[in-house]
Every structure is written in structure tokens, then in C-alpha cells.
Amino acid sequence: MVGYELSHLIYPSDVGIYQLNNVSDICEHESFKRPDPLRHFKDYNGDFDVRNKHYVASAAFTGVHGYAFGGVWLLCGVTLAIFMIVKFLCGGSATLPFLDHYYIHIFFLLLLFTSLAIVASCFVLATSQKTMRRTEKLKESVVGIGEDALGTIGRVLKTTNQMQFLLLPYNPQICASLNSTTQDLRSNSRVIRRFIDRSGQSFDKATHTSYIAHLVVLTVNLVTLVAALVLTLLHWRPGFIIIIFCFWILTSLCWFLTGFDFFLHTFADDACTAFEDFVENPQNSSLGSMLPCINESFSGKLIAEIGSTIHNFIVELNSNMSVIYRLLGVSEVNEESIGVIKVCDPFSGAPNFSYIPKSCPQDAIRIGDLSKILSRFTCHQEGTAEACRKEGRFVPLASYNMAHAYSRSIQDLLDIYPDLQKLSKCTIVKNKVAEIVLHQCRPIRVSTRLLWSSMLSLSIIMVVLVFVLVAEASQCWRKPFFTRFRTSTSR
């Protein structure tokens, strides 16, 4: 009876205690409609999925305004440089004489926009660093989802291995079933480990690349801004032309970063929206197929079957304790000396079979303690049966070992039942995602929006500054700054 009940309990796990990415059919929900450069700019009509290159390409294309302006600005710079060189070689003047009467205004505009550019560059650097920290925190939370699931599966795996060791001498068929379950658990552990590694690498690559790009471009920009002020005062014409050339390239890079920052903001907003959808309805969320979560319809049946099997087994065990005694070789006289033993049943009755571990009577024992009670009546010395009977040790050692193996195995299964519930109900993933939505989504949305808007402001300032620098260069070409300044003050 014990072997039959336990084998019936284990066999449902053949289909896999933890099936990763086995979600129910996804219902229709809102999809993105964005041009996809990888499909000749046809609309991408899918959901949020970082594994899909078409989603990533369509999200990156949202920053096309920044990329386009940066490209056009760079092309205009090349055209202007060619025009100036040709005109200089032909002996023409590269100056703008109609600006002669506005040199003081141009100089103060140069100071103003240079100061604004310095302040904006420092602000973007600070915002980029803050965004990186918040993205790192988000990465830790997302990776933590997999780590927690992996830890839970590890505990279940350890228990199934121990059950195999205990039951192998008595029921190889159950051990074969457990071995199949163990292989499923190990396979799913590898899948989760890949999820952790890929998620961590993707976050690190995106955040560090973005931060380093901002750091390099803005640091060079700050150095060039200071150099522009110095060269304006020193009136070194070749250096001033080089500064304008550098600023033109830096302005293009700023616009490219503006487009990338808008893509980053779009991606963060999409991710948080997907997290929010997952919290509301995990089975109908596009994020469900990416997170380590179990099929709810499958898991509900599995957990209910495990609960009902353990419940029915313990009920039958308690109602047939006399039969168990006779199977173990205990006589009716010895049965009276042991007393009536009731095993704790932590499950409610049908139809829910809810797990309520504190619902047992005070005089009930855990099923794992059954072997401890029987050990007091077990004859551990071979060849001294008469001595054992005199001492009240009437349970054969072989019977005790079998009872110990089955009772310990069921107790181990009860010990990991809360972990199985967490896996089946996706509690680990749901709690982590809910925490992300509650504490991290708003800050990272604000940070990425602020990064994009500040980068846009810097790019606009740089465009105006380049025009002012071109005007100042025209004035410097005609006469030195101090000469113009003395002329202005004498007037």
C-alpha cells in the first residue's frame, strides 16, 4: 500500500515539476506599430521581446530624428569645409563683412553659449551616471528573479536526489520516475542560468556602452569648450579653425547620442509597461514567455494532485494503522503497548486540498517522525530475536528501514511543498516584478526622459554655438579681438 501510494504521488512529476517558458495561449493585446529597418521599414506589429531583433531594431529606430539630424549636420559641415577650402584656394575672402558691427554682441553670445554648453555637458554627465546606477539596480532585480528561481529549484533537486537514494532499495520504479524529474529540473536550471547570464550581459553591454559613450563625448566636449575660450582670447587662427572642426563633429555626435537616448527612454518605457501588464495578468503578458514561470493551468493541476495524493495517503495511513502494524510484524498485544499513532495531515479536504501546516492536532506527529517512534521498538541486533522480544523491540530491522525510507521521503516532499507552490504559482517572479513596478519603473522612466531631454538641449546649444563660432572666426580673420574691443570702447 505504501509503495503504491507513493508511486502514484511521484508519477505526475514525469511531465516536469517546473516547465520553463510553457505559458498558456497568449490573448490578443496591444502591439507596437513601428517601422522596422530590418524589414524594409515595414511596421513591426509584435510585442516587447528583447530576444527579437525586429523589436530591438524598431525601438532603436524611434531615435531616427537624432540620427538623421546628426548625419545631415555632419554632411553640411563637410560641404561647408569643401566650399571654404575651394574659395580660399581661388583667392576669395572667407569672411562675413556684414558682421563687422556686431563683434561685441557675437563675443558675448560666444561666452553665453559656451557657458550654457559647459553647464549642459556637466548636467548630462551627472544624469547619465544616475541612469546607469538605476539601470544597474534594475539589472540586479531582473537577474535576482532567476537567482531566486534557481535557488528554489536547487532545494527541490536536492530533495529529489535524497528521495532517490532512500527509495532505490525498495522501489526502483519510483526512483526511475524521480530520475526523470531530476533531469527535467537540471535542464530547467540550465535554462534559467542562461537567462541570468544573458540578462546580465545584455544589461551590462547596454548600460556601460551608453555611459562610456556619453563620458567620452562630453569630456572631449568640455575640453574643447575651454580651449575655444582660450583660443578666442589668443587669436590663434589655425587653432580656432580646428576648434570649429572639432565642434562640428562633436555636435553630430551629440545628436546621435540624443537619438540613442530617446531609444533608451522608449525601451525603458516599453519594459516597464510589459512589467505592469505581467503583474496584472501574467498569462496574457508578452513578458510571460521571457521570465522563468510555469504554466498556471498545468501547475494548478499538478499541485492539487500532489496535495490530494498526500492527503489521501495520510488519511488511509491513520485509518489503517493496525494493518500497518501487522505488515511490520507487530502483534495486537504489542500494538496496545505502542498506542494509537496519528500522523499529521497538513492538507484540507477536497476539492482544494489547501496546504495548512498548522492545522494538525497537538497529539499528531509528522510523518517523518514515524520512524523515530518505530525505532524504539525495532530490533537492531541480528540473532537476538528472543532478547528483542523481552525488551519490547518487536519490529524487524528490514521493516523499519522500509518504513523509514517511505516516511522520510514523504516528509521531504512535504518540506519542499512550499517551494513547489512558489514555482507553480509563479510567486517568486510575480513578487519581484511587482517590486520592480512599484519602486523602480518610475525612477528609471524619469532618468531616461531627463537624459534624453538634457542631451537634446545640449545638442541645440551646440548647433547655435557652432554658428556663433563661425561668425567669431570671420571676425578674427579680419582683425584681432583686442583691436575690435578697443575700437568698440572708443566709440
UniProtKB/TrEMBL annotation:
Alphabetic keyword roster: Membrane, Transmembrane, Transmembrane helix
InterPro entries from the UniProt entry: DDB_G0292058-like (IPR040283)
Q: What is the lineage of its organism?
A: Eukaryota, Viridiplantae, Streptophyta, Embryophyta, Tracheophyta
Q: Which domain of life is it from?
A: Eukaryota
**Official protein name in the record:** Uncharacterized protein LOC113870244
GO terms under cellular component:
membrane
Origin species: Abrus precatorius
Where exactly are the transmembrane stretches of this chain? Answer: 72-96, 102-126, 211-234, 240-258, 450-471
